[in-house]
Amino acid sequence: MKIIYSKNFPPKEFGAINLFGLIIVRKDYGGLTDAEKNHELIHTRQMLEMLIIFFYLSYVIEWLIRLMQYKNRLKAYENISYEREAYSCMYDPTYLKNRNIFAFRHYYKERKEK
C-alpha cells in the first residue's frame, strides 16, 4: 500500500481517500492509524474483486441511491455497503485473512436508523 500526503486533497471532510489502491491523506490530517490503514486495505480488496471500474461505478450508483434515501450526503456515504463493511471491520487486524469474497454484499441492506 502506497500512501502520499496532499495539502488540498481529499476534501476537508475526509482525512484520506483510496484511489486505485493509492492512499492520499490530507497533510493537516496527520498519519493514519493501523485501523484506518486496514479500512483502506479493505477498500483495495473490494476494488480488486470488482475489477476496479465496477467498484467505482457501483460506489457512485449506490451513493446516489442512498442520497435519495437519506437526503443527506454524510448519511448517504455512511450507508454505502463498501463503507459499512470497511468501517465495521477496520479494527480487526485479521479481517482480510478471513474475509469471504464479495463480503460487502452482506452490508447492502438498509440500516434501520434514518
Kindly list the characteristics that best describe this protein.
114 residues, 3-stranded mixed beta sheet, alpha+beta, 5 helices, globular
Q: Could you give a short description of this structure?
A:
The protein has 114 residues and is an alpha+beta fold. It is 46% helix and 12% strand. The protein has a domain at 32-107.
Report on this model:
The chain is of the alpha+beta class. The protein has a domain at 32-107. It contains five helices and three strands; from the N terminus they run βββααααα. The protein has helices at residues 34-49, 53-70, 73-78, 81-89, 95-98; strands spanning 2-6, 16-19, 22-26. The protein has a three-stranded mixed β-sheet with strand order 1-3-2, covered by helices on one side. The chain is globular, with a radius of gyration of 14 Å. 16% of the residues are buried. The model has no long low-confidence stretch (mean pLDDT 94).
Q: Can you summarize the main beta sheet?
A: 3 strands, mixed
On the 0-100 scale, what is the average pLDDT?
A: 94
Structural class: alpha+beta
Count of β-strands: 3
Helix content: 40-55%
Instruction: Sum up the overall morphology in one term.
Output: globular
What order do the strands of the largest sheet run in, or round the barrel if closed?
1-3-2
Radius of gyration: 14 Å
CA distance, first residue to last residue: 35 Å
User: What is the succession of H and E elements?
Assistant: EEEHHHHH
